[in-house]
């Protein structure tokens, strides 16, 4: 049996004697006899470290690690610089608690302050929080924070990631918020429909840029329409794209959110990831979550602390702006180190490379019979195509060759594939993909 | 620097390494921000040239505003974070008895296996045939955690404890809604509860009813009877409670709620005291959330990522978030979404790699080891409490569970030394202070949770330090107002931070 209890049986006996009890059971006398477990838990016996390692490696071995990935749909494989992994494995960072004791937590606090600064720079917004659970919950929190007494409608474009939409719906159900989907038209948010749906009860409009299909939305008019009705404009963005493409602030967004995973966080079968969240200064006191601020200490030196806590649950209890009481600190640090290492040039290079490769891949794929772009318009690093033949069969053939193909869409997009390329995909790899597809889809 | 002998001198040098002493080094101790280290033209060369023609999109999509990101070499970047690391205090740095937070040792093998490519490099939308290992991890963790808690099913989508509370309360809402019992709009919460409890209830669309605790820190069954009724949707409780005592009336309390038609919610914050001894499911709870980052040893990461799985009894299973994993003909699959499900609370399946760590922990300890961990958590807390008995004021009598509460109210009245002053002085001894000012029902509270991974001699050392600080508080109380003196910063001005918010670096 493995254990992390250091005290020996003898020491434990000594401690019991000192406490003045005969055995451990006496310490648990308050537990009513009728609820006490009458036997051991039905769990396997404990194991030494090597056995645990073998067992867990065995489980990991039952997953297929694809060398070649052309799938995104909310989780993106980008290059993770070695220094990112090294820095974020430091035990102090890994094992620290939430930085309540500022005097011994300046490291974590400063790293969050730097993260907040970089998120403001990326999004062009005034204020960032210390992060939330993921991109989907960041969007949901943003929708909730826009609610006003007489504004209870949240308009969400149908082109937003479906799992983000579902998360927003769960967050709003049972409250007086109503989620209304703005229909899509040819893979874009239908602007006419948006205009019709906007009214005096609209609290917010949420658009994703690039949207779920990879397409670049005409976000500027959407922002103008939203503001004409005095509603808040929320944009969910891919952070890598912001190295090259317009910042949410340039579209007039009041709140910018997004999934921070592309910034140095491994795919990790979906988590832990990072929800970033930034707003205009006007909305600062409505932002949920932790926020770090700069101040001075008793010696007059610069110091960092958790601040604006009057918004939070441990002070406000049921009147708090959200129940959130943590951030994804280590993931936020990961994103910060990634951005430090990449710099603006590196980030732009990753964005440009991803976009270029996606366009090359789209061009090559569409030369194949039966493959064509489904939606018109410009795209970033994802795009939707038709597929010749049975989608599952095609994907399985790719899988056999170690390639994770485009994501098979469902619902009204069934039969279509959502492809993604990043700087990780070489030209050679893409050419191989296309030639395999040619082979397997040949009539 | 304070007068008299260095209080730290007779302890291990390591305990004092929170930071150098400015007066000794005579140097400017403030640390530069990474932006202040940036020099135009510096940087790292990470990505190759693009091997396909460069694509372009329309001007209306191209960014006009500049992005200020640091321009630093890899050496400077590496040193910057090493400097930050030295200004951070983790479980590896020393005693960390934060009550209610269960800061136990975070085993390294768990981190190691979570980093295996077979977990770290798996795309969340891979076909199920290629992720059988991931699904098995979650199924095994579900099976084991259900056995530990006495629940029927467990879902890993919630990313943290508060997220788990929100999810669990949504299950309660869905249950009443399906029964068309729409008058049940209230959640009862003890006044000693964690702040997240009422906040989560409000966020889930409920109103909150507080129930007063007895002097001993328990929920008074009579008081509970007064507030239950036809509008009661549920009752949130942690047991052992937030003062570290096991509520003996637990079966009566949960029965009062059930008889009134409500459901019982178990806040798993304090599960570390009772693993293998008693289960929430057997105490009458219908829903639980766990904190894998507390009880199951996964690291806190300076505030996250954690994991807050939600478990429930049979009658609530169909409301759980989707997707649910099932085993069908020897193969793991995602089940069809039941109509009654509350839906998603997060993208994908939760903080998966945190669950990997928790599973490795459970496999290491096994049933017997988990019980042993809880027993020793309780033993360590009682040992420390016993040693402090008669010296500090303990508002609750009897044996504690895994944590105990000290009140410095008298010290505050007599000497003007607050729990905050006391905690800040502990920093100079290289010790993380206990949780301060919680629970709210105790004045000048310090809440101590040593955990089972602390040695007997560390507990004794902590006791000696607490006594030394108390003695100092009586002799020279004014010194404690000025502490800490040995940390890299003195007390920060929190009022200034909130009044004049500076939340980012200005270029």
Key features?
heterodimer; A: 443 residues; alpha/beta; Aspartate Aminotransferase, domain 1; Aspartate Aminotransferase, domain 2; 3 domains; seven-stranded mixed beta sheet; three-stranded antiparallel beta sheet; 13 helices; 36% helix; globular; B: 507 residues; 34% helix; disordered N terminus
What report would you give on this structure?
With 443 residues, chain A is of the alpha/beta class. Chain A folds into 3 domains: 9-52, no CATH class; 68-73 and 346-441, Aspartate Aminotransferase, domain 1 (Alpha-Beta Complex); 82-337, Type I PLP-dependent aspartate aminotransferase-like (Major domain) (Aspartate Aminotransferase, domain 2, 3-Layer(aba) Sandwich). Chain A has 13 helices and 16 strands. Chain A has helices at residues 9-19, 49-61, 82-87, 91-95, 106-123, 135-145, 162-172, 191-197, 219-228, 313-316, 329-365, 391-400, 427-441; strands spanning 68-69, 127-128, 153-157, 178-182, 184-185, 188-189, 202-209, 232-237, 255-259, 275-279, 292-296, 302-306, 382-385, 403-404, 407-408, 417-420. Chain A has a 7-stranded mixed sheet with strand order 2-10-9-8-7-3-4, with helices on both faces. Chain A has a 3-stranded antiparallel sheet with strand order 13-16-15, covered by helices on one side. In chain A, strand 3, helix 7 and strand 4 form a beta-alpha-beta unit. The longest helix of chain A has 37 residues, at 329-365. The radius of gyration of chain A is 25 Å and the shape is globular. The N and C termini of chain A lie far apart (59 Å). In chain A, 60% of the residues are buried. Chain B has 507 residues and is α/β, with parallel strands linked by helices. Chain B has 3 domains: 13-46 and 66-93, no CATH class; 109-364, 3-Layer(aba) Sandwich (Aspartate Aminotransferase, domain 2); 371-496, Aspartate Aminotransferase, domain 1, CATH 3.90.1150.10. Helix content of chain B is 34%, strand content 9%. Chain B has 15 helices and 12 strands. In chain B, the strands form 3 sheets. Chain B has a 7-stranded mixed sheet, sandwiched between helices. In chain B, helix 3 (108-114) runs antiparallel to helix 10, helix 6 packs across helix 7 (196-203) and helix 10 (352-388) crosses helix 13. The radius of gyration of chain B is 25 Å and the shape is globular. Chain B starts with 21 loop residues before the first helix and ends in an 8-residue tail after the last helix. In chain B, 58% of the residues are buried. Chains A and B meet through helix 1, helix 2, helix 3, helix 4 and helix 5 of A and helix 2, helix 3, helix 4, helix 5 and helix 6 of B.
